[in-house]
Write a structure and sequence with these properties.
Number of strands: 19
Oligomer: single chain
Bound molecules: flavin-adenine dinucleotide, ligand EGO
Mean pLDDT: 93
CATH class of one domain: Alpha Beta
Structural class: alpha/beta
CATH topology of one domain: FAD/NAD(P)-binding domain
CATH architecture of one domain: 3-Layer(bba) Sandwich
Distance between the termini: 91 Å
Low-confidence stretches: none
Largest sheet: 7 strands, mixed
Radius of gyration: 25 Å
CATH superfamily of one domain: FAD/NAD(P)-binding domain
Strand order of the largest sheet: 6-5-14-15-16-13-17
Length: 451
């Protein structure tokens, strides 16, 4: 690549999306400087962020494929071919995600994934990674950046004329986005939901095996309370309890906690272990969940935000990382289509991505509301069984929305359009069916009256 065509890119945030974006630019031989506030996660045992493991699906896999990491992650990940629904009376109900094509989602370790991305990035001589560098200031007009470096008094200045593009992949509470918010015509909204989440653990059995069937996403739908478990490589499970903060606050003592679990998630207590449940629950605090929407995602030809910085969503669709990785694919394609001209690429990114990103934020929030309101024990179950049955007999027509979102790369808005079309068909069949049934009934009544 000629020096003139090589771009210089600064990426703020070395989490999942920032490190993915860095790999995508580095493989195109551009000069990349990645700045991450935290230290090198490969040198610490701390968890890499908000959840210990994540569900990886098709949209995220495409980004990993492009940088050559898909097979590495799939071989480390654990396939989840079905949801296993735990009813309160202890019954287990498995419903395949894809009875037609046998597609599955993968439980992957956040730390392993972030480490794999950083290690891949290090292979590129045209990339520098600056750990312990926290961006404290950005002038969105000049592109001048200021960083504080852990343990150093002096601030580090990166002048705007040293790079052509600044990407903000610094998460839901993005400092780069906050700088964009000071600009005119920048729309922003955020919603904290009443539910918080806490991660618990189901350890391996005494003989080192999984205590539950491993190739499943285990779900305990209890209306207001929801709990899921994703498998880990070490045969343990990361359990995530979703509950309103006010309910977390009511569980003040071990006895109250155990009474709650024994009545709400009875089969989970022996799996977690009563002592471990008490110790873990009272050793941590529930974390908040936020949904963020904003527009535009860019400023001129200089600044762009990706991932949670642009569209943080509640985790009730398992799509946040997948959507952020898909941002990187959309940007990658636009770089190719528009000859890497940032003056065209950046506004086009907002134009083509914004509606889909808003849609998945809305879908995740809709799922949250719908799952919370599915209060009867079997309603979650029957909804899923009906979807799965119709999908298996009309595979090209009846694609459940969850399957379109999770197992295809159709734009999120197209997935919803298809769902709305399906709903119209169903309602007209039901309406038509009712009309036919009514006519038959009238005919029979007429026969009876007229003898
Ligand atoms: C409980 C839970 C479960 C989830 N489950 C799933 C799932 O199953 N599947 C899925 O696809 N998604 C899931 N998600 C969503 C997923 O975690 C996020 O969408 C994803 O982490 C977003 O990645 P990101 O890189 O945009 O942001 P982040 O992961 O937040 O990374 C931002 C990075 O920027 C750094 N940073 C922040 N500020 C600065 C600064 N000023 N200077 C330098 N660096 C900075 C941070 O240290 C961090 O490393 C879940 C989220 C939660 C909360
Ligand atoms: C991490 C991850 C990956 N995918 N999903 C997911 C999400 C929603 C689902 O259905 C919604 C629905 C249920 C019932 C009726 C309509 C819609 C299904 C499913 O169909 O199995 C799977 C999750 C997840 C995340 C949080 C919670 Cl709380 C949860 F339960 C699962």
């Amino acid at each position: 690549m000629s020096a003139e065509s090589q771009k210089r890119v600064v990426i703020v945030g070395g989490g999942l999306v920032g490190s993915m974006a860095a790999c995508m630019f580095a493989r195109k031989q551009h000069k990349v400087d990645l700045y991450e506030a935290r230290g090198d996660m490969r040198k610490s045992n701390m968890s890499a962020g908000k959840s210990i493991n994540l569900a990886l699906s098709v949209r995220g896999r495409e980004a990993l494929r492009r940088i050559g990491l898909e097979e590495k992650l799939l071989s480390h990940g654990i396939p989840m071919r079905a949801r296993m629904i735990h009813t309160v009376d202890g019954k287990l109900n498995e419903i395949l995600y894809d009875p037609v094509h046998n597609q599955c989602i993968y439980s992957v370790s956040r730390k392993f994934l972030n480490e794999a991305l950083i290690t891949e990035l290090e292979q590129y001589p045209n990339c520098n990674i600056h750990f312990h560098h926290k961006m404290t200031k950005l002038d969105v007009d000049t592109g001048d950046l200021t960083f504080s470096k852990q343990g150093h008094e002096a601030l580090i200045e990166v002048k705007g004329n040293q790079q052509q593009l600044i990407i903000g992949a610094d998460g839901a509470h993005s400092g780069v986005r906050k700088c964009l918010m000071s600009q005119p015509l920048f729309d922003f909204s955020q919603t904290y939901i009443e539910h918080g989440y806490m991660e618990l653990c189901i350890p391996p059995s005494d003989d080192g095996n999984y205590q539950m069937e491993p190739n499943f996403l285990h779900i305990w739908p209890r209306g207001t309370f929801m709990m899921i478990a994703l498998p880990n490589q070490d045969r343990s499970w990361t359990v995530t309890l979703f509950m309103p903060f006010e309910n977390f606050a009511q569980l003040k003592t071990p006895d109250i906690l155990l009474d709650f679990f024994n009545s709400t998630f009875p089969d989970a207590v022996p799996l977690i272990g009563a002592d471990r449940l008490v110790a873990d629950f009272f050793s941590r605090k529930a974390s908040s969940l936020i949904s963020i929407k904003c527009r535009p995602y860019h400023k001129n030809n200089k600044v762009l935000i990706l991932g949670d910085a642009a569209h943080a969503m509640v985790p009730f669709y398992g799509q946040g990382m997948n959507a952020g990785f898909e941002d990187c694919c959309v940007l990658d394609d636009l770089m190719d289509e528009l000859e890497e001209d940032f003056a065209r690429v950046l506004p086009k990114f907002t134009e083509v991505r914004h509606e889909d990103a808003q849609m998945i934020c809305d879908l995740a929030m809709y799922n949250y509301i719908e799952m919370r309101d599915l209060v009867t024990k079997s309603s979650f179950l029957w909804r899923k069984r009906l979807d799965s049955f119709l999908f298996s007999i009309f595979p090209n027509f009846w694609v459940p929305l969850y399957n379109a979102v999770t197992f295809s790369r159709f734009p999120y808005r197209v997935c919803v359009q298809h769902k709305e079309f399906q709903d119209k068909i169903i309602s007209s069949i039901i309406t038509g069916g009712c009309a036919v049934f009514g006519l038959i009934l009238l005919y029979l009544i007429g026969l009876i009256i007229l003898g």
